[in-house]
Each structure stands twice: as structure tokens, then as C-alpha cells.
Specification:
16 helices, binds adenosine-5'-diphosphate, 25 strands, alpha/beta, single chain, seven-stranded mixed β-sheet, 541 residues, globular
Length: 541
């Protein structure tokens, strides 16, 4: 190798911690508390408090590589854990508070959590499984509701107050683990994904690019996506890099609270799953004149497909732009973003169609799709196959080496998403593999049907699933949630989508329900629909 090269400077979260103090100290962090009041702090305070946390954990006996879990809403203390825990060499493990206590106990033991930082407002939930965590040594309570820390626990604020504000980070290997996130485990047990310092920092650097998520020091970012899910899409780390003002929603995730927060805090970029934005769109449609969201530059939507009708509704009726993105816990999470390339602009309908795809890969993520034999398929925008990805922030195995069949011998991760890829690299998800509808040998895309059904004015949400069929094996059935006071029947819904589909792809049946069952991360839980309505066509035959 030639001599006279650059420094071998590790890409670590310790640098992000240093940066929030030394460069961005004046930047504000706003946290919504359970009583809806807002705490206002600065990055300078964030720096000092994260440093104190790092020192406190060392004092408590936490060693490099140990897991320190969080069980918390999105707020400044959670952000302190995001920075302070990895900076001292331990691994921050974000527990998903929407899971069942049995699953949480399984995950906490699988991760071998030794310390948990928990919100007092979540204590009743935590109390249901804390006794099951075998190697739990310390519980630090963030007294967000003001009451005293429960017996046998430590008060987070008192622990910080007792620790030194001067932090001298240990030498860290950039490939050491920094964060542990579990997939929701809709099939089988939840699996852990270990993010390294390097993967987190590289991800933040790329996610911050203008054509990826894109944040600058002029922005105000609202991560609605929970910090207990896939590092809140990396947004806290991007903001630490760029010095972006952060606004946290705390536990208030209903449309009215979010819209108020966005308007009052002059949010420019907000991010979350489609369900949240579906609610916001309905709210704005009902009373558009009431709120001024002119501050909002874009809303990043991902986690499940953002229907074209929603993207169009925001833009046409409210002048709001949606940026549609795809990712997974296993990809740190950002993989693709649906930007309309310059040379593809000009035709509104085509632009909308591109915005509704999952987009093309961000730099350093590579995509391909394969058939059931693993043969790489053509990028013709037609042929469907399983999406595989690789890159520096894509998992190369699961924590504890489970699920080895998801990793190919030639270094790709099998996403379980069924997609088309076109010549420009745009990826369109047609289904998750486990939800694919196979009707007489033909694959029918449930996502395409859902998008079309959701463009009906009476439909709030639509989930299409496979029902058993005596002749065709499986046929599509649509579960529909109507908007409040809206009316529609099966025939009018099918007529609405008929022009966009071949006859064989149209749903055989429509069931009207109050709510679509969901996973802990807000995705349609189609296995539940299949359980409940999977025999509906057999029963009728
Ligand atoms: P889990 O697998 O635990 O539910 P993840 O957040 O890791 O949680 O889920 C990743 C999956 O979510 C992807 O494999 C894909 O099926 C789905 N997904 C994410 N973003 C999108 C999107 N923009 N459109 C459609 N599906 C998406």
C-alpha cells in the first residue's frame, strides 16, 4: 500500500456526542411531556447530560458491549441514551413498548439487558415483565409524570446529577456494536439486529443527503416514528450531525396533537408510518382552514406502502409534500427513497406513480430481485421476485446467529419483500412474501389493490389478503374501514377499481370492519385477517 495516507479515524457515535456539544450547542431540543407541556433544552445540555449518563453507567459497572435497554417514548432522555450509551462502549437496546409483556421478557432476556431506562409513565407496562428479566441489575426511571421513582429503582435525574459532566470517551472500534433493535417477529420469534458505530454513522451521513431524507441546520425535524423502532429511522443521529432542531412528540401520537405540534414548533420535516399520516390527512380534510402547516417542507413516510391517493391528497388539497421511503430494521433502516429523477418529471400522473413506488436505492445500498431459485431477474419493471439488498448498513447476520437462511452465500440479505425493479432502479413492492396471493398460479399484488381501494372517497383504509378458494387455491378478499359517516358497498368499491385491474385480480369479497389489525410497528397484520376471514369464500361456495 502507498504511504502518506489519511488518518484511520473511527466512525463512532462518540464523535456525534462531541459534535453536539462543540459545534451545535445552541440548537434546541423540544420534548412533549405526558401532560402536553413542552420541555425546551439545548444540544449543549444534551451533550452534558449524555456525558453524565456515560460516566454514570461506568460507575454502575456497565462494561463495553453490555446491553442498556430503553423502554421509553420519544424525548430528550431517550436521545441521551442514543448518544451516551454507545459513547461509553455499551449497546443501547430499544425495547418496543407496543409488544406483549411475554414477548418483551423474551427479547430482554435474549438481549441480556442488564440496565433498563424506563419512563415512569410506562411503569405499569414495564412492571408486567421486569421480574422476568434474569440479569437485570439496575432500573433508571425517567420521572416524566413527576411522581417518585418506584422502590428499588434509581431516579434518572439523581443518577445524572451525581455523575461527572466531563467525559473522556474510551477508544472505540468503529465496528463495535452501538445499538440493538429487534424486528417485530410477525413470523417466528423476534430477531435482534446489531447496528455498529460505523453502520450508524455512515447511515446518518447518507440519510442526511438532500435526495435521501435530507436535513440541514435550517430544518426542524419531528420524528413521529418511535425511537424504539429502527433507531427512529436514524433521524436523531442525522440531526446530531447536521445540527437540526429536534421536536419530540412524547406519548401524544394522535393526529390533532401532532398537527398542533408541527404548526406551533414550525416543523419542516416530519417522519412516520402511513397510518399516522392517514389520520392527519383526514383531520386536515375535515377542517383545512384551521391549521397553518406552511412550515412543513416534507413528510417522510415509510414502514408500509404510502398509497398514491394519500400522496396526492396531501399535495393537491393541502400543498404538502410526501417523501416515500422504504427500509427495514435489518437495514438500519433506510434503503430506498422515492425521488422523481429530473428527466422523469413533467407528467403529473407519471410523477405521482413514481412517488408511490418505494423509490431507488440510496448510495451504498445495492438492490436486486431474484426468483425462487435465486436467479437474478431482469430490471424490466414487470417480473416479480424477492428483493435482496446489501450495503454497509445492512445486517450480515442476526444477533445470536438466528435466521441464517435470510443471508445468501454471496453476501445479500433476503428482505422477504416481493418486488418489481425497473430499468431506472425504482423498486415497487407488490407484497410481503408471506402475504402474497396465489390465485390459480397467478400472483396478485395486494398492495396494488389496497392503493386503488384507498383512492375511493369513502375508504379510510383497505387491506387485501388471501382467502382460501376451492378452485383457485387463493383469491383476494378486501377488508375495508370506511371513513366516519361514509357509505360504500362491495359493488361500488369493485366498480371503482375495475378499470385499473385485469378481471382475475379483482377481490372476490369485501368485508367491512371497524379496524384493521396491526403489528406493533403499525403494519397490517394480514395473518390475523386470514385467521378471521380466510374461509369466507369456502363457506360461501
Ligand atoms: P417488522 O419486519 O418488524 O415489521 P420492519 O420495520 O423491519 O419491521 O419492517 C420492514 C418491512 O416493512 C419491509 O420488509 C417492508 O415489507 C415493509 N415496508 C417498509 N417500508 C415500506 C414502504 N415504503 N412500502 C411498503 N412496505 C414497506
Amino acid at each position: 500500500m502507498l504511504s502518506g495516507r489519511m488518518m484511520d479515524f473511527p466512525l463512532t457515535i462518540a464523535h456525534l456526542l462531541e459534535r453536539v456539544g462543540s459545534v451545535h450547542g445552541h440548537v434546541e431540543v423540544v420534548s412533549t411531556l405526558p401532560d402536553k407541556t413542552r420541555h425546551r433544552g439545548t444540544f449543549a445540555e444534551l451533550h452534558e447530560r449524555s456525558a453524565r449518563l456515560a460516566n454514570a453507567l461506568t460507575k454502575l459497572g456497565v462494561k463495553a458491549g453490555d446491553r442498556v435497554a430503553t423502554f421509553a417514548w420519544n424525548h430528550r432522555q431517550h436521545l441521551e441514551c442514543y448518544l451516551g450509551v454507545p459513547a461509553m462502549g455499551a449497546v443501547v437496546h430499544t425495547l418496543n413498548l407496543r409488544l406483549h409483556p411475554t414477548e418483551l421478557a423474551y427479547i430482554a432476556n435474549h438481549a441480556d439487558d442488564q440496565v433498563v431506562v424506563v419512563d415512569l409513565s410506562l411503569w405499569p407496562l414495564f412492571d408486567k415483565f421486569r421480574g422476568e428479566i434474569k440479569n437485570l441489575r439496575h432500573v433508571l426511571v425517567v420521572r416524566d409524570t413527576g411522581g417518585p421513582a418506584p422502590e428499588g429503582t434509581l431516579d434518572y435525574e439523581a443518577v445524572l446529577a451525581d455523575a461527572s459532566p466531563t467525559f473522556d470517551p474510551p477508544a472505540l472500534d468503529e465496528n463495535a456494536a452501538a445499538m440493538l433493535c429487534y424486528t417485530s417477529g410477525t413470523t417466528g420469534n423476534p430477531k435482534g439486529v446489531l447496528y455498529s458505530h460505523r453502520s450508524t454513522v455512515l447511515h446518518a451521513m447518507i440519510a442526511g443527503l438532500p435526495d435521501a431524507i435530507g436535513l440541514s441546520a435550517d430544518d426542524v425535524v419531528l420524528p413521529v416514528v418511535p425511537m424504539f423502532h429502527a433507531s427512529a429511522w436514524g433521524l436523531p443521529y442525522v440531526a446530531a450531525l447536521t445540527g437540526t432542531r429536534i421536536v419530540f412528540p412524547g406519548p401524544h401520537l394522535d393526529p390533532a396533537s401532532l398537527v398542533k405540534l408541527m404548526a406551533e414548533e414550525r416543523v419542516t420535516v416530519a417522519a412516520g408510518v402511513p397510518t399516522i399520516w392517514m389520520g392527519i390527512l383526514q383531520l386536515l380534510d375535515a377542517a383545512p382552514e384551521k391549521v397553518d402547516l406552511s412550515c412543513v417542507r416534507t413528510m417522510i413516510i415509510g414502514g408500509s406502502a404510502a398509497p398514491a391517493s394519500m400522496i396526492e391528497g396531501f399535495s393537491k388539497r393541502h400543498g404538502l409534500e410526501v417523501t416515500h421511503a422504504w427500509g427495514m430494521t435489518e437495514t438500519n433502516p433506510l434503503g430506498t427513497v422515492a425521488r422523481v429523477k429530473r428527466h422523469l418529471r413533467g407528467d403529473a400522473a407519471k410523477e405521482l406513480a413514481l412517488r408511490a413506488t418505494q423509490g431507488f436505492a440510496v448510495p451504498f445500498v445495492e438492490t436486486r430481485h431474484v426468483d425462487s431459485d435465486g436467479k437474478v431477474l431482469a430490471r424490466d419493471g414487470q417480473v416479480m421476485g424477492e428483493l435482496e439488498v446489501r450495503g454497509p448498513w445492512v445486517a450480515s447476520s442476526y444477533f445470536g446467529d438466528e435466521g441464517a437462511d435470510r443471508f445468501t452465500k454471496d453476501g445479500w440479505f433476503k428482505t422477504g419483500d416481493v418486488v418489481r425493479i425497473d430499468a431506472e432502479g425504482y423498486v415497487t413492492i407488490t407484497d410481503r412474501e408471506k402475504d402474497v396471493i396465489k390465485s390459480g398460479g397467478e400472483w396478485i399484488s395486494s398492495v396494488a389493490l389496497e392503493n386503488a381501494l384507498m383512492s375511493h372517497p369513502a375508504v379510510a383504509e383497505a387491506a387485501v389478503f388471501a382467502a382460501k378458494h376451492p378452485k383457485w387455491d387463493e383469491r383476494p378478499v378486501a377488508a375495508i374501514v370506511l371513513k366516519p359517516d361514509a357509505k360504500a358497498d362491495k359493488d361500488s368499491l369493485i366498480e371503482h377499481i375495475r378499470p385499473s385491474f385485469p378481471k382475475f385480480a379483482l377481490p372476490d369479497e369485501v368485508v367491512f370492519i371497524e379496524q384493521i389489525p396491526r403489528t406493533s410497528t403499525g403494519k397490517f397484520l394480514k395473518s390475523k385477517l386470514r385467521e378471521q376471514y380466510g374461509d369466507i369464500l369456502v363457506d360461501k361456495a
